[in-house]
Amino acid sequence: MSAGMSASVGQLVAATGGRLVPAQGQSETDAVARVLTGVAGLGDARATDLSFLSNPKYLTMLPTTQAGCVLIGAAQPPLAQTVQVVVANPDHTLGQLVQAFGPKPTHPEPGIHPTAVIGARVVIGARCRIGAYAVVGDDCRLGDDTILHPHVVLAGQVILGNGCILFPQVSVRERCTLGNRVIVHNGTAIGTDGFGYASVDGIHHKIPQIGIVVIEDDVEIGGNTVIDRARFGTTRIGVGSKLDNLVQIAHNVEVGPHCIIVGQAGIAGSTRLGHHVIMAGQAGLAGHLTIGNQVTITAQSGVSKNLPDGLVVRGSPAQEFKAEMVQEVARRKMPEALDRLRRLEARLAELEKLSAGRGVSP
Amino acid sequence: MSAGMSASVGQLVAATGGRLVPAQGQSETDAVARVLTGVAGLGDARATDLSFLSNPKYLTMLPTTQAGCVLIGAAQPPLAQTVQVVVANPDHTLGQLVQAFGPKPTHPEPGIHPTAVIGARVVIGARCRIGAYAVVGDDCRLGDDTILHPHVVLAGQVILGNGCILFPQVSVRERCTLGNRVIVHNGTAIGTDGFGYASVDGIHHKIPQIGIVVIEDDVEIGGNTVIDRARFGTTRIGVGSKLDNLVQIAHNVEVGPHCIIVGQAGIAGSTRLGHHVIMAGQAGLAGHLTIGNQVTITAQSGVSKNLPDGLVVRGSPAQEFKAEMVQEVARRKMPEALDRLRRLEARLAELEKLSAGRGVSP
Amino acid sequence: MSAGMSASVGQLVAATGGRLVPAQGQSETDAVARVLTGVAGLGDARATDLSFLSNPKYLTMLPTTQAGCVLIGAAQPPLAQTVQVVVANPDHTLGQLVQAFGPKPTHPEPGIHPTAVIGARVVIGARCRIGAYAVVGDDCRLGDDTILHPHVVLAGQVILGNGCILFPQVSVRERCTLGNRVIVHNGTAIGTDGFGYASVDGIHHKIPQIGIVVIEDDVEIGGNTVIDRARFGTTRIGVGSKLDNLVQIAHNVEVGPHCIIVGQAGIAGSTRLGHHVIMAGQAGLAGHLTIGNQVTITAQSGVSKNLPDGLVVRGSPAQEFKAEMVQEVARRKMPEALDRLRRLEARLAELEKLSAGRGVSP
Which listed residue, A30, A258, B127, C155, has the most CB atoms within 10 A of its CB? Predict the structure, then answer.
């Protein structure tokens, strides 16, 4: 199934500045006149669909695709039925085209829904949309063009920048701040108490969590993720970072700029990440760590030590990628190695017996 | 503690077609007249409780159980105080009996609660129940007998089949569809944006996610799970599949029919599962994989390769179950093997010295 | 950034009974007169901030801290600018001081918000606060001083003790009970159906889940966690236990008193934990296990066997901590050990050849 849009190949070329490669035997005029009404993957696309080639894994699908047009990074010889539009970054260009010509997400109507509960001294910017049953606590401030979907709950003194989108059932606790163009998906909680207790004689006494969460500009956060407020001070998500669904961010964590934190990953308290860190799915970071810039942590890895800039790690406990890979390969040879060890022992014992029989006592 | 129900053993025998085995010295008439007012596990059950034996692990509890009646797969010699009712599948039969004679879940009153906000052109089937503060967007369609609990939020153009139950705070984004008899538990989000970015010069640009989610008939989904909409096309959960709590389903994933996805498992983008796949708790699948039919992925496993039909895997990275188990056993012998290796080296060096002392130069 | 409070050092000494150690060259009078307006970590603190030293890892920050006052477990020689207040447990004492002198969490106004929907026969204790759009089902009972934040949903017959705080979008299903002083953070679901199916001919039939959840006194539960109701009987969280965010508790689990379950950990069905069990982040327990008292399960561990009292385990599958650590160290030597094994084989073959050339047939 393809998702709807509407544009001619000519419009796409004009919008992208891409280079046109008509299909076999097709004139440029015919190529640019072709109208596309949908977007689909190479395998599903039909003659009226725009498709794209980004992951080289799918290159083999190109000869047989039925797509009307494909965005591609490197021109291929003319295809049987598919117009190529050659662009530097097909993924990014497709995103821009879909934004321009594709369907838009559904947002609440402009203005404030009559059922929304708005507290005292709330400042709401221009062109905001606030959906049904949203609750905005006292002293909140919303920038221009910010959208609260139905059932969003902001506690008191929450500050949101311009152009934010909070989807249904997002909640933000008191005094937390979100920058500009922050997107938060359904059910995510920001500013919950950090998990901190002082244990005395076996009883865990709650340590009050009086800090806040600061989400910087251009951050996007998936659904049902939780970001705890700091014990005191600030839990921070740096500019341009992207968090997926069901991610756990503990108190006083600092995620640097432009990081990618994939689904179900978790970061324990007070750990700091540099910029452009990538945490793959279900990976975990222990608390009180310093993770350098451009570090990559592969899926399900568990990190319990500081990591320098640029390192790629895997495993639990995590190690440098290649070292761990070599160990994993060696581990798979262990059953056979144990057999070889046993045979060596037997052969050596045999040889020792021979040698003793033959030898002179030293 | 036992959960309430009310039926005589005779009623249970009639309802199940099971074979009666009275307690020691008990007449059939006395056995069928016994009244049961609760359901409980073998260890907790009292004389007025129905219990069951399904997991053989609990067979040893049978001689001492106080249960009034036990559903059992294979008849045992008469028990001291407990009537046996022999049925093919005690688990399934117990479920049916509890459904018939036990307490029912609490649902909203029939009709539409006055506080529910219903959009334009919404079609609501017969006998639907819509709870307090539910929000139903424009152009949604609900089949007959479908129940929305309080605080459910449906965006525009969402389609629900007959007999669905959406528990509190479930949210479904625009254009997604659920089949018949779909059950979704508290806080689950369906149709959130997939996690897709095109990175240009270190900046992550959002790729619009314009596809949908299709949940087929008889699917059940646990609480606080997240299912992302497709980039374009469809994220699909196949007929009869069951997802547990806190599961992550990324964009364009296709879960086949009758799969079991246990709590905190996660599936990365574009991976396809066959039918009757079992993913145990906290397991993870990388993206763009093809997982065959009846594959079993054990708890905490991490799969990064395609898997053929019927395979059972474990470990991270996951391998065929027995091979991985043999490696794990070998791994546990490694500390001792290193000692043996050191001793071998010493003995061999000794022998080489002896041999050199004794030998003639070549 | 520091979080606000307001107290003099003298007030803190009076409140804690701590011993005063003035800064270098400072009189006691000057020390107690110092006014603190914030709380911050050692690295961020300024002259007007209270700080603390709890984790010895941060001892090196003491000589250079700018903090006005530090809570500390063992007195250090007088610091350049920082007053020391020596107390037995700086973590716990700081918590008490912040509770007394720091900012308070934002709660709904006293009373019942006019938009809250309260069912029939609901009993609400003294001084309760019920926020906007909360829904309280029929026959619920709330103790004194209990707070429901906006958008909390209680189904029918839910019982809450005194002094509970349920943050926004917490939902509790029918017949579940929470004790006194229970805190539940945003989006957590209590009492969802357990994940139980009887599979017949490849079709998974739902097993009704008619039990309940009991949360005992002084339990705190993080955000977006899910606790399933029992199949029948009770899923129980013991007195004083603390659960973090995104935790999965399956049906019929029994968590003992004073346990600590860290973020993204999961416990499968019917497993029982003793008292003071610690499960670190992303750890998992298989179903039907018995975990003893004071067991510690390290991060990402996967436990598939019963564990006796006091054991510390790590790894997946989990083993006793030191044994697993020794194996992990050995595993890292495996690539080199394989080389040594190959060299041994070559040397032994050489020696065997020599020996055969030299020897007499036996």
Answer: C155
Contact C68, C58 (CB under 8 A): no
Q: Give the strand pairing for A226-228 and A248-249.
A: parallel
Per-residue pLDDT of chain B (362 residues; tens, 9 = 90+): 456 778 999 999 999 999 999 999 999 999 999 999 988 889 889 999 999 998 888 889 999 999 999 999 999 999 999 999 999 999 889 888 988 888 888 999 999 999 999 999 999 999 999 999 999 999 999 999 999 999 999 999 999 999 999 999 999 999 999 999 999 999 999 999 999 999 999 999 999 999 999 999 999 999 999 999 999 889 999 999 999 999 999 999 999 999 999 999 999 999 999 999 999 999 999 999 999 999 999 999 999 999 999 999 999 999 999 999 999 999 999 999 999 999 999 999 999 998 888 754 44
Minimum-distance CB partner of C57 among A137, A208, A288: A288
Residue from the list C103, C246, C281 with its beta carbon closest to the beta carbon of A226? C246
Integer-rounded Cα radius of gyration of chain A: 28
Dihedrals φ, ψ of C122, to 5°?
-80, 135
User: CB A355 to CB C355 under 8 A?
Assistant: yes
Nearest Cβ partner for B224 among C187, C211, C268: C187
Distances (CA, A) of B327 to A168, A336, A339, B330: 47, 9, 13, 5
What structural domains does chain A harbor? 3-101 (3.40.1390.10), 112-322 (2.160.10.10)
Mean pLDDT throughout A248-255?
A: 98
Distance (Å, rounded) from C-alpha C266 to C-alpha C272? 13
Q: Give residue-wise pLDDT tens across range C110-125.
A: 999 999 999 999 999 9
Test mutation, C282, C301, C314, C332, chain A, max A CBs within 10 A: C282
Chain C window 270-299: which residues touch B at a Cβ cutoff of 8 Å?
282, 284, 286, 288
Output the 3-class SS for chain C.
Answer: CCEEEEEEHHHHHHHHCCEEECCCCCCHHHHHHCEEEEECCCCCCCCCEEEEECCHHHHHHHHHCCCCEEEECCCCCCCCCCEEEECCCHHHHHHHHHHHHCCCCCCCCCEECCCCEECCCCEECCCCEECCCCEECCCCEECCCCEECCCCEECCCCEECCCCEECCCCEECCCCEECCCCEECCCCEEEECCCCEEEECCEEEECCCCCEEEECCCCEECCCCEEECCCCCEEEECCCCEECCCCEECCCCEECCCCEECCCCEECCCCEECCCCEECCCCEECCCCEECCCCEECCCCEECCCECCCCEEECCCCEEHHHHHHHHHHHHCHHHHHHHHHHHHHHHHHHHHHHHHHCCCC
The answer to whether the CB of C94 falls within 8 A of the CB of A206 is no
CA distance A357 to A257: 73
Q: B97: helix, coil or strand?
A: helix
Please give the pLDDT value at position C1.
Answer: 42
Q: With CB atoms and an 8 Å threshold, state whether C347 touches B352.
A: yes
The parts of chain C modelled with pLDDT lower than 70 are: 1-3, 359-362
A251, A258, A275, A276: the active-site residue = A251
Rounded to an integer, what distance in angstroms lies between the CA atom of residue A114 and that of residue A149? 13
Farthest-apart Cα atoms in chain A, separation: 105
- pLDDT at residue A362 in the model: 40
- Are A310 and A293 spatial neighbours (Cβ–Cβ below 8 Å)? yes
Q: Would you call C149 a catalytic residue per the annotation?
A: no
Q: SS3 for A266?
A: strand
Phi, psi of A109 (to 5 degrees): -60, 150
Does the beta-carbon distance from B233 to A1 stay under 8 Å? yes
- How far is the CA of B136 from the CAs of B155, B172, C116, in angstroms? 6, 10, 20
